[in-house]
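Postdoc handover notes: sequence design on the structure in folder B. Input tokens:
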């Protein structure tokens, strides 16, 4: 391949090509301004050395590995800032770095971490590890936090648990543990997750539906939490450890209807919440109202934004409320800080409309209440569920009919 005409090239993507040193050497010799390089589904025919003083971002998305050949990839890039490596196959690539400016690294493949040299990541601040096998504690965490002394953002996604985890860090700001799992033979045993992070401000946890971690969390500065321990009733007990951290201001939770009675007892312990997002899924129960949300709001007198998303399992029976409505009272509810309320998904039931009615009448500073048919769920690590965007039984006119006389001049009722 001829690169002599690409002297001013800054971004290059090579796709589905056989790559060896004979291609890379003229590439970097001629493209002296190259900053972004992607090798997508390429086949590596030999060991590779990436040498470039201008390269800033490097992405490898692996193709098939030929036979059992093991390939060493050495990256010598003095100004490299970020690196992404992903493989849907079991890789045989060993990564070695001489990139002192590297601060962001993403590694996704079914392998042990011994294919990565963590000792070269002294200036690393952000790392994402996806689909790793083996013992995370021995193979990853011990090396990661002892050698990467500037780490601030760490994500473990879909990794395999074979042992307890102990995380110790004075610099860690954000920790995300999402969709990790363990051996099938170990499902009857709880995992231990021990976190001691003095400056941790944000924590995300979403477990495999059958995992029940015993969590010890020492994070005195934690103020933002996402929690999803699956939708089984028995998975809620360990959330009480989170509820003891009273400084939390921003809480997002996924839960099932069966978990509500237990979780409500913990949620009313958060007295400093400013933002609360609840995602609820399950079969519709006409006997269950949503006044428990008012209890939580009463306990959190600093709450400014409340968001509720509901996805019912039997939509045909959960929305048709007709025009019959008997106003129920929740006399003790009042709130002087709540400004924004969002109600998404399957929110045409009489019980949700009653909740909205109480908020409109008793939240004195309420500026906006929004109804929408969107019902996708947050899943952690910046991802959302792929559920249908809209609730098929959403009825704009029905909501407006019941609430139009309860909206005052300072509050806007938005339905879309």
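Designed sequence:
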């Amino acid at each position: 391949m001829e690169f002599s005409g690409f002297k001013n090239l800054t971004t290059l993507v090579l796709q589905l090509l056989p790559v060896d040193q004979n291609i890379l050497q003229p590439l970097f010799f001629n493209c002296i301004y190259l900053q972004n390089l992607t090798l997508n589904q390429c086949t590596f025919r030999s060991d590779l050395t990436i040498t470039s003083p201008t390269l800033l971002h490097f992405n490898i998305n692996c193709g098939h590995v030929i036979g059992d050949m093991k390939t060493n990839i050495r990256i010598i890039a003095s100004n490299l800032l970020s690196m992404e490596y992903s493989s849907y196959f079991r890789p045989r690539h060993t990564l070695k770095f001489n990139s002192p400016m590297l601060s962001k690294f993403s590694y996704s493949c079914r392998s042990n971490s011994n294919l990565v040299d963590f000792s070269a990541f002294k200036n690393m601040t952000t790392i994402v590890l996806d689909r790793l096998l083996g013992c995370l504690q021995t193979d990853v965490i011990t090396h990661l936090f002892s050698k990467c002394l500037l780490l601030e953002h760490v994500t473990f996604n879909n990794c395999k648990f074979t042992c307890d985890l102990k995380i110790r860090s004075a610099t860690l700001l954000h920790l995300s543990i999402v969709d990790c799992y363990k051996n099938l033979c170990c499902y009857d045993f709880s995992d231990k997750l021990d976190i001691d992070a003095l400056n941790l401000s944000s924590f995300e946890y979403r477990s495999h539906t059958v995992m029940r971690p015993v969590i010890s969390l020492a994070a005195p500065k934690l103020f933002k939490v996402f929690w999803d321990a699956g939708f089984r009733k028995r998975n809620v007990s360990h959330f009480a450890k989170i509820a003891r951290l009273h400084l939390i201001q921003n809480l997002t939770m996924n839960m099932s209807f069966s978990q509500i009675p237990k979780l409500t007892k913990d949620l009313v312990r958060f007295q400093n919440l400013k933002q609360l997002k609840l995602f609820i899924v399950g079969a519709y129960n006409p006997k269950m109202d949503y006044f428990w949300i008012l209890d939580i709001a009463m306990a959190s007198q600093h709450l400014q934004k409340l968001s509720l998303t509901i996805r019912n399992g039997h939509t045909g029976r959960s929305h048709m409320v007709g025009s019959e409505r008997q106003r129920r009272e929740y006399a003790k509810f009042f709130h002087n800080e709540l400004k924004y309320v969002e109600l998404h998904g399957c929110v045409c039931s009489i019980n949700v409309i009653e909740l909205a009615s109480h908020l409109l009448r008793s939240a004195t500073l309420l500026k906006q209440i929004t109804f929408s048919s969107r019902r996708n769920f947050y899943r952690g690590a910046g991802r959302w569920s792929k559920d249908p965007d809209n609730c098929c039984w959403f009825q704009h006119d029905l909501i407006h009919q019941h609430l139009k006389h309860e909206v005052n001049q300072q509050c806007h009722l938005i339905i879309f």
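Context for whoever picks this up: The longest helix spans residues 350-362. Don't rerun without checking with the PI first.
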